[in-house]
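Justification of computing resources. Each target in the renewal requires a structure prediction run like the one illustrated here; the chain below, 336 residues long, is used simply to show the kind of job we budget for.
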Amino acid sequence: MTKQYGVVLIGCGYIGEEHLADIYYRENVRMVAAVDTDIRRAEHLARKYGVPAYGTDYRKYIGLPETDIVIIATYVDSHLGLMRDAVAAGCHVLCEKPVAADLAAGEAFFREAAAASTAVMIGHILRCNRSYQKIQELVRGGAIGGLKLIRIIQNHHALEWGRYKRLMQDCPPILDCGVHYMDIMRWISGEEIVSVSGRGCRLDPDAPCINYGDVQVQLTGGCLGNYESGWSRNLKACSRREFIGERGYIRLTLKEDRVSDREEGDLLEIYHSDTGSYETLNVKSRYKDMYAQFMQLIERIEGRPGNGFTLEDAWLAFMAAREACEVIQTAESVSR
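Resulting structure tokens:
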């Protein structure tokens, strides 16, 4: 018989619904409650996905004997307190990234998560993405020779400006999304980040923070990583992921960005410079495979290694992204 895990979702906004939509009907999931400070959002998701209870006070539900797992999908400034309360109640935790906006809260989160008697996992969803898994396999297998450059662009044309402004009250896009791509650079290269530099600017006068940044990282094996990210009404959306080696490159095009053949999934284009030949692979992948991520937490709860992603990995990605934000905020130019 399949073991069922009772789940409480805290945070019923965009990312909360992404979690709920992919797990509520699974055989090993039993939803307990949906919680949000906005009762209307909690009620909406509860009715939509058949969650038996909803409310605004998470404490009412995390202490119930039927609650095993708490999913934290709230704004960044609440992550530490919610994790503390969930762990104290004996619950396992899946917390959205980033865990904090400042160093002190980040250090506290990771220190207490590592010491917890229950499993705590950070939501680095791209570790569960089959396209990135395939790229890691190809790069580590020498398909393009030694890795020299990683180029990642993730710019959003932020038409839902109110939502983006609220996100940026806690942290800029370089931190919010950057933790993903600092981890991707480490994971796929197999190298560690040793230095961070970058520049940024405020593209919208009413943006709560610098909302565009261009970051460069140097990795231990000589690979250079370049990450560009912005959320702005004045910025054209752009998604680009390239991995360049000594003998060619790998380019990822997500299925929604393909001109044709979207039904084939994501497209990997591999160029071999020694032969001048191209190879293409179609990968059936979901950009945000929430259930696959949920199952990684189950692996940990049940004592299995899963995909090997650790709290240490999440910590190193957080520190690199936070350092990038600090460099951008304090950058000074010398006029010539």
